[in-house]
Specification:
295 residues, 434 Repressor (Amino-terminal Domain), Endonuclease, Chain A, 2 domains, seven-stranded mixed beta sheet, 49% helix, elongated
Length: 295
């Protein structure tokens, strides 16, 4: 079942509220004590409002209390900051990280993701997830983590657009077993056939001159997310987001797409199928998967 369309909820809701109030951007800005350009940036997704901005605009627009609370939550999720993953895990459990990422994805019309080390979370099979996460999560915690990540994947059934880039080395990080990796490669072939997904694979044979230090995601033009083993950072500074957009275009330009990408994926699947079962690695060794945004 598809998720109802909800493209860029923060921007769309602010625009809708202003139009329902019958105000021009200039008049709304005057009443809220800000510039018209600022209001425009909020509405086109190029800037994330502060709590004070949201409250001022909602007051001007006469927004219902429930709408104000929703907008404050969306803005908080997108606002620049870094949160200790260990703190989140201890206080609220790992699924809370996935739920926060899911809310950010749900407010975005276009999602771009680059991952050099493991499969992007939105593209992972359930078996891959369990193997990747089992080194740090067990029992009900592992089930909750996998369920939360699988729930995020429903967004692929919406009309949002996705441009996702993986390195071949990410698929050569042998997670769990040859069978798991062969199925994961096959799943990527299927996902790449979706009309709203553009999947690129950078083959290991492709010469590069740009260093790659970590994975990152970009949400529309207003936010980027970077994850490590111990922290998740949401970056909304316009200059930093623009830098990540530039980096993404460089990496995307190195990737193979369509038939060429499928050739790489099928070759990898065949190579994993050719491995004897005894060659499988230690399950759950993928420590970077427990917090890293890996979308």
């Amino acid at each position: 079942m598809s998720i109802p369309r909800r493209l860029d909820s923060l921007s769309v809701t602010l625009l809708t509220l202003r139009e329902r109030a019958g105000l021009s951007g200039v008049e709304a800005a005057r009443r809220a004590g800000m510039s018209q350009a600022t209001v425009s940036r909020f509405e086109n997704g190029k800037r994330v409002p502060t709590d004070a901005d949201v409250r001022s605009l909602c007051e001007v627009y006469g927004a219902p209390v429930a709408t104000r609370r929703e907008l404050l939550t969306l803005a908080k999720d997108l606002r620049e900051g870094a949160t200790s993953a260990r703190t989140l895990l201890h206080r609220a459990g790992a699924p809370s990280v996935q739920q926060r990422i899911g809310r950010i994805e749900a407010t975005s019309a276009r999602i771009r993701s680059f991952q050099p080390t493991i499969v992007i979370g939105l593209l992972q099979t359930a078996d891959y997830m369990r193997a990747l996460l089992s080194g740090l999560h067990q029992g009900n915690d592992l089930k909750a983590m996998v369920a939360a990540r699988l729930a995020r994947q429903q967004i692929l059934d919406t009309d949002r657009t996705f441009h996702l880039v993986l390195t071949e080395s990410a698929l050569r990080w042998h997670v769990g077993s040859p069978e798991i990796m062969a199925r994961q490669a096959g799943h990527l072939v299927a996902v790449a056939a979706r009309p709203n997904v553009r999947l690129g694979i950078i083959p290991w044979t492709r010469p590069v001159t740009h260093p790659v230090l970590h994975a990152f995601q970009i949400y529309d033009q207003r936010a980027a997310m970077v994850g490590t083993e111990t922290a998740v950072a949401v970056i909304t500074d316009a200059r930093d987001v623009a830098d990540y957009e530039t980096r993404f275009e460089i990496y995307a330009g190195l990737a193979d797409y369509d038939d060429d990408a499928q050739h790489v994926l099928r070759r990898l699947a065949d190579e994993y199928r050719a491995l004897p079962p005894k060659s499988q690695g230690t399950q759950g060794s993928g420590r970077s998967g427990h917090v890293c945004t890996d979308q």
